[in-house]
Write a structure and sequence with these properties.
The structure is a homodimer. Chain A is mainly α. The first copy, chain A, folds into 2 domains: about 15-75, Winged helix-like DNA-binding domain superfamily/Winged helix DNA-binding domain (Arc Repressor Mutant, subunit A, Orthogonal Bundle), CATH 1.10.10; about 80-120, no CATH class. In chain A, about 55% of the residues lie in helices and about 10% in strands. The first copy, chain A, is built from 5 helices and 3 strands; from the N terminus they run H-E-H-H-E-E-H-H. Chain A has helices at about 15-25, 40-45, 50-60, 80-100, 105-120; strands spanning about 35, 65-70, 75. A 3-stranded antiparallel β-sheet of chain A has the order 1-3-2, covered by helices on one side. In chain A, strand 2 and strand 3 form a beta hairpin. In chain A, helix 2 (about 40-45) packs across helix 3. Chain A is globular. The two termini of chain A are about 25 Å apart. In chain A, about 30% of the residues are buried. Chains A and B meet through helix 1, helix 4 and helix 5 of A and helix 1, helix 4 and helix 5 of B. The structure holds a DNA duplex.
Chain lengths: ~130, ~130
Amino acid sequence: MILKIDFNSDEAFYLQLCNQIILGIATEAICEGDVLPSVRALADQIGINMHTVNKAYSMLRQEGFVKLDRRRGAVIALDIDKLQAIQEMRQNLSVVLARGICRNVSRNEAHQLVDEIYDLFSKGSGRRPE
Amino acid sequence: MILKIDFNSDEAFYLQLCNQIILGIATEAICEGDVLPSVRALADQIGINMHTVNKAYSMLRQEGFVKLDRRRGAVIALDIDKLQAIQEMRQNLSVVLARGICRNVSRNEAHQLVDEIYDLFSKGSGRRPE
DNA sequence: GCACCTGTTATACGGATTATATAACAACAG
DNA sequence: CTGTTGTTATATAATCCGTATAACAGGTGC
């Protein structure tokens, strides 16, 4: 999996990393048990500081996406709290959909976007058949 | 429409204001032509600084939700660029849905959330006459 | 003209966050 | 013992957030 930083983005580097890795898990580009590069290796690879990568990894651990092991490094390990996940989605979707509704984005168009993204993410192998 | 600040939130005040106002437009609690409180009045009302409110209004103007008039103040005026709106939604939905997918939130559950929010916005707490 | 209200701009300050840098530490593998 | 892992501790510069005071330009009502 290729991780990159958009140095012109106004999004913090460590957040860019978090989102890319979470997207990677969702698209199964990386999956449970896989190991992420070490903080130093990834920092060198993408040209940022070690601590910035470490901050991303720590956040991923806190949110339950990876477990950090001194022996192996950062291992993908999902701690699934579906109820909490849905609650967070409800909050975030409200903000995203509200912006769309203000711009006359219809309910059907929102559904189409959801399908589009689910299709895009589940291309390849079918761990999740729905 | 009631605007409030969660002083314990980690979300910036001006972003809280932006999101609440956009939600207000989406739910039609406020609609095109309505006037928002002046930056000074709203700042006094919710107990924050004038410039913080001004920052929120400026961002709403830049994103095309209001127009600022020296005579009347901040007026809701939607500048609808649907294509751009959908493109932004695609980007934001990807991040939100990815987190859900990692937690085994199914496609149907995502659709249910979209419906739930659309229902809440269109039926829930419509326009309140002054 | 005058008082009063708009948004707007400028400047300044304290605090928090972001990213960097250097350094050291504990735990494990070979 | 050497090298790797994550982790922690400082320190620094830059940026952002929120506040504060002040002034300005444009419009309203008297």
